[in-house]
Design brief:
Layout lengths: L9 H4 L4 H23 L1 H8 L3 H25 L5 H21 L3 H28 L6 H9 L1 H20 L1 H22 L14 H5 L4 H20 L1 H7 L6 H48 L3 H16 L1 H13 L3 H29 L5 H18 L8 E3 L4 E2 L15 H5 L5 H8 L3
Antiparallel strand pairs: 1-2
Helix pairs in contact: 2-4, 2-6, 2-7, 2-8, 2-9, 3-4, 4-6, 4-16, 5-6, 5-9, 6-7, 6-16, 7-13, 7-15, 8-9, 8-13, 11-15, 11-16, 11-17, 13-14, 13-15, 13-17, 15-16
């Protein structure tokens, strides 16, 4: 029987390697849930560790600190390491950190474990987008990144409430034990189905400083900083904002609306991103701005507030995917180092949101939130609009549905393991995965 070459099968070439991408999504889910879980377990953890709830809150702060400290230097230092062992090492960090947290009776030891988890998170976020992009041809990179990132809104909208529920049911230590078990199972999943790729050859590696000067990188990072700062000013202080709007005690409802809308947002982005990255980024920023305007003008009407929160969630849901895809396309072979800069910008904005929002709340009240958000989002919108050549380019291939892409990261393994992929990118993802995996 004559076999049809993989390059002749359009259906095969258009099929995403879902098993591999969903493993990355699970990694994102574990990363976010490990970070946010203490926020829903403050009383139980405080009692178990013999400290105040305010001190337990610092377990989230030190997690972010680990990510900030490690993301850029660790990613730059591991550019030459094969990707799958590096991914497994990052997941193993969560196994160790969550296991220590499960059994720790010392607050100091718990803080050390949380810092280690943050270091693993910094490396994980730097890896995920570039890893997903390398599994597929250019015209599918955005969709692949969207699938890999779906674990983030799922963790925020479903995982954290579920963790809080189980924490009340079986205790906070069991929750972290379950996280360790999930991470251990994920290591097996990754080892079986996720393809391996070579690290960068020494002659092709760029320093973080050189990556920062690549055309388009700085505009994307600025947009990340402004957009996420605006988000976190409101998200961090959503409870006092709602109380001032006459919705005290309805924070759970508002966050549920936000979470559901964010899931819809990432679905829309995943479906359209490969042909409409620029338009989606402009729309996302604009919709967030309109929601901020509505909150500022009619923030005392509960129906308007909930509608604005839904629009905000819709805009934010796919934002990470938009920014990561834009940066991956812009940075090309240096995508992982560029993504580590995105991690740093994102975590800086998270910390900045708490600081700026706190100052605004203390000195001017929640009424100052909407104007501050509008200034930040207008700046982001103008930068996206101006970054037509590099960063957020318009579509250039209407027939193929693709956008201008600067990605030179090939889904092929430079070490030569994937012969079918070297022969042509139309080989099916499943064949590429099997060939790229050593042994």
């Amino acid at each position: 029987m004559r076999r049809t070459p993989p390059c002749t099968s359009a259906a095969a070439s258009d099929r995403l390697p879902l098993a591999s991408l969903l493993a990355l999504a699970m990694a994102a889910f574990i990363t976010i849930l490990t970070e946010a879980l203490p926020a829903g377990l403050l009383p139980q953890m405080a009692q178990g560790l013999g400290v105040t709830e305010a001190w337990v809150g610092q377990t989230v702060t030190i997690y972010a600190g680990g990510s900030l400290a490690a993301a850029i230097p660790l990613t730059a230092a591991t550019q030459g390491v094969r990707r799958r062992p590096l991914l497994l090492a990052a997941i193993a960090g969560f196994v160790v950190a969550n296991t220590v947290t499960t059994f720790s009776g010392s607050f100091a030891l718990t803080m050390v474990a949380r810092f280690l988890a943050g270091v693993s998170a910094g490396l994980m976020w730097a890896l995920l987008a570039g890893y997903a992009a390398r599994m597929v041809p250019d015209h599918q990179k955005g969709r692949a990144i969207a699938v890999a990132m779906v674990g983030t809104p799922l963790a925020l909208s479903l995982g954290v409430p579920a963790g809080t529920f189980f924490g009340n049911l079986v205790g906070w230590r069991m929750c972290f034990g379950i996280m360790s078990a999930l991470a251990l199972a994920l290591m097996l999943w990754v080892r079986v189905v996720v393809p391996d790729f070579a690290g960068q050859a020494a002659g092709r590696r760029l320093s973080p400083g050189r990556v920062f000067t690549l055309a388009g990188v700085r505009p994307v990072l600025f947009v990340v900083l402004a957009f996420v700062l605006a988000h976190n000013i409101l998200y961090t202080y959503i409870a006092p904002f709602l109380a001032a709007s006459g919705m005290e005690g309805r924070t759970d409802l508002a966050l549920l609306v936000f979470g559901v809308a964010s899931l819809l947002g990432i679905w829309i982005v995943g479906a359209l991103i490969d042909g409409h990255l620029r338009a989606l980024t402009l729309a996302s920023t604009g919709v967030f701005g309109l929601s901020a305007l509505a909150l500022g003008v009619a923030g005392d009407a509960p129906a308007v507030v909930l509608a604005a929160v839904a629009a905000w969630g819709l805009a934010f849901g796919g934002a990470a995917t938009l920014f990561q895809t834009a940066l991956a396309r812009t940075a090309g072979d240096a995508a992982d180092v560029a993504q580590s800069m995105l991690v740093t910008a994102w975590n800086t904005a998270i910390a900045g949101g708490g600081i700026v929002g706190g100052v605004l709340l203390e000195r001017l009240g929640v009424g100052a939130f909407a104007p501050a958000l509008l200034v930040l989002l207008l700046a982001a919108l103008l930068v996206v609009w101006g970054a037509r050549r590099h960063g957020f380019p318009p579509p250039v291939d209407a027939a193929g549905g693709g956008e201008e892409a600067a990605v030179s990261v090939s889904p092929c393994d430079p070490a030569g393991a994937d012969a079918a992929c070297r022969a042509g990118r139309s080989a099916s993802p499943d064949r590429g995965r099997a060939a790229a995996s050593p042994g």
